[in-house]
Amino acid sequence: MDFYCHKLKLVIEVDGSIHNLQAVKDVDVERQRQLELDGLKIVRFTNEEILKTKERVIEKINLLINELS
Fold first, then answer.
1. CA distance 5 to 58
2. pLDDT one-digit tens code per residue, 22-35
């Protein structure tokens, strides 16, 4: 987990290019499935999204915060 808010049970993952590898994708899918079974909400962003569309990323996070509050 890159960021975690215990109060909202919100996990924010920031995926670099390593996450494009199939083996890493497979691990990500299983890990996310387990976290969701534990009641956590996971949102993923790529490094590129954060660098190029940070306003959109912030907007999405804010929407999730409102939804989960």
1. 15
2. 999 999 999 999 99
Tokens representing 30 are 């299983």
Instruction: Render pLDDT for 45-68 as a digit per residue (tens, 0 to 9).
Output: 999 999 999 999 999 999 999 999
Report if pTM > 0.90. no
43: β partners: 12
Paired with 8 in beta bridges are none
The amino acid at residue 68 is L
Residue 60's nearest CA partner among 48, 36, 39, 43 is: 43
